[in-house]
Backbone:
């Protein structure tokens, strides 16, 4: 079989290949805005191909593309509207830029709605060895002591997680954790965190990565 040279390929074929390339690219990206935006552009180009690329316009394909374009455009509009409604205060912005920078503002807003802020005094018990832990918390400000059998094993600083191992292993706390200074915490009840994980893969990935990084820091601290 003889292959056509590139110069002999009509513009319709270039348009057709371009639309399918953009569709393939839309499936490859993880950002939902890019996915829907690329899908709209690809389907619009495909409609041009269906109209001009054959002897007769392929109205069935064009009609369904109009439906798909409309659906993606509406969803994209809803996403943009939701993003524009997101507002963070200064502390929330700092937390987003620091520990949760990989989350989109919308996903971070969902995380914030699931949790609560707590200001606690020195000596507040955050976890007790061999007892259930209700929440997974992030130490925002202050410090906390980690003790096993009454022996100090670590001093937690801002950014540290509390209750994450109990959450991951579904077991009781492995140590006592008590605030060493007045502290501020952001806490999420375990059932709410599990629900977030089930409904949002981005939040699950971000939290698991944060837990892994925190565990490495704690192991390095305990080894010194």
Residues:
């Amino acid at each position: 079989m003889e292959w056509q040279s590139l110069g002999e390929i009509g513009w319709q074929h270039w348009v057709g290949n371009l639309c399918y390339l953009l569709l393939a690219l839309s499936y490859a990206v993880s950002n939902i805005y890019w996915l829907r935006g690329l899908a709209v552009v690809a389907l619009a180009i495909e409609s041009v191909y269906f109209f001009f690329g054959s002897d007769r316009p392929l109205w069935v394909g064009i009609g369904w593309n109009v439906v798909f374009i409309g659906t993606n455009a509406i969803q994209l509009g809803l996403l943009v509207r939701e993003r524009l409604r997101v507002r963070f205060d200064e502390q929330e912005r700092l937390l987003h830029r620091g520990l949760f920078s990989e989350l989109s503002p919308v996903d971070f807003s969902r995380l914030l709605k699931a949790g609560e802020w707590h200001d606690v005094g020195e000596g507040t018990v955050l976890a007790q060895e061999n007892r259930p832990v209700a929440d997974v918390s992030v130490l925002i400000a202050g410090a906390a002591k980690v003790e096993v059998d009454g022996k100090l094993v670590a001093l937690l600083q801002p950014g540290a997680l509390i209750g994450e191992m109990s959450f991951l292993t579904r077991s009781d706390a492995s140590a006592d954790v008590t605030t060493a200074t007045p502290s501020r915490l952001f806490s999420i009840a375990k059932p709410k965190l599990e629900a977030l994980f089930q409904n949002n893969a981005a939040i699950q990935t971000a939290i698991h990565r944060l837990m892994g990084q925190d565990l490495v820091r704690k192991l390095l601290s305990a080894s010194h």
User: Anything to note?
Assistant: The longest strand covers residues 135-141. The first helix runs from residue 11 to 28. Residues 10-85 form one domain.
